[in-house]
Amino acid sequence: MKNPYLPYPVRIDEITTETEDKNLKTFKFVFLNPEDEKNFSYTPGQFAELSVAGKGEIPIGIASSPTEKGFVKFTVNKVGVVSSTLHNMSVGDTMGIRGPLGNWYPWKEMEGKNIVIIGGGFAFTTLRSSIIYMLHPDNRPKFKDITVVYGARTPGMLLYKEELAAWERRDDINMHITVDGTTDPDWKYNIGFVPAITEKKITSADNTIAIVCGPPIMIKFTQPVLEKLGFPPERIILSLEMRMKCGIGICGRCNIGDKYVCKDGPVFSLAQLKELPPEY
Ligand SMILES: Cc1cc2nc3c(=O)[nH]c(=O)nc-3n(C[C@H](O)[C@H](O)[C@H](O)COP(=O)(O)OP(=O)(O)OC[C@H]3O[C@@H](n4cnc5c(N)ncnc54)[C@H](O)[C@@H]3O)c2cc1C
Ligand code: FES
After folding, report:
1. Which of 17, 112, 147, 276 makes a 20 to 30 Å CA pair with 54?
2. Which among 18, 52, 55, 58 is the best mutation to test ligand 1's pocket, defined by most ligand atoms within 8 Å of the CB?
3. pLDDT confidence of 197, banded at 50, 70, 90?
4. What's the pLDDT at 280?
């Protein structure tokens, strides 16, 4: 059995600066040993530990979809020691990836249903993975209507701008992009906070599952909107971020009550969270 603490060696193949403040970059990695790509078999919603020699490891949601072959992508916010070191690395540099870790969005349950994806800020990463996955021709027939509400502070802070524009042009996904505010006279999408746009654009909870990923304040105000629309707590799916260390349910760093966010999560339904102490 493979040592669960041992990362796979990877090479940085491409770095994309996503936001105008340059604090969010997407790293495309290729595995140094091609068989490691098969072993790193993941499902949208999962995360991995990015491991930088001499600095440490950080848990980051997997932003690519398993339907994208030959690489794996992560979008990293520059906040502290490891993420800043990563931001200073270059194409061609090598490092490690440990995982995939955690659970995933409830894909089996989502089949045959309308899907509402609600994202805010840089927490959109595993939602990108999910959208790419659902839009793949092998998977699109499994889902009914797909609706996305995605917000950022300003147009310059939106992630994946080219992909957002491409999804806007498709007729098999309903996109509602929004910003908190802008002075850009050419801005053609919504202006307003994610909960308000959700309330305006989502009209029914019938046969629908909502996946919500964003900063705590966005989740706090989106939750009652969804409940008012008639979403039962078991059809509101959230992804949590906690401080983590091992990522595999051993160190006890990330627990809420008797659940480990790294192993039992990071994906939980609101019904499950209502059973836990309010520590998240
Ligand atoms: C399941 C999961 C998925 C995540 N996905 C992403 C992602 O896709 N992209 C991304 O940029 N980040 C993501 N994060 C957050 C990321 O793990 C932290 O930003 C990172 O660990 C910071 O490490 P650092 O060494 O750069 O900063 P540190 O030097 O450790 O800390 C810098 C500052 O950030 C704060 N901080 C560190 N870790 C966290 C955390 N987990 N939550 C809140 N505050 C924290 C510290 O308190 C400190 O103020 C995710 C976290 C989890 C648990
Ligand atoms: S990070 Fe160690 S138990 Fe979750």
Report:
1. 17
2. 58
3. very high
4. 65
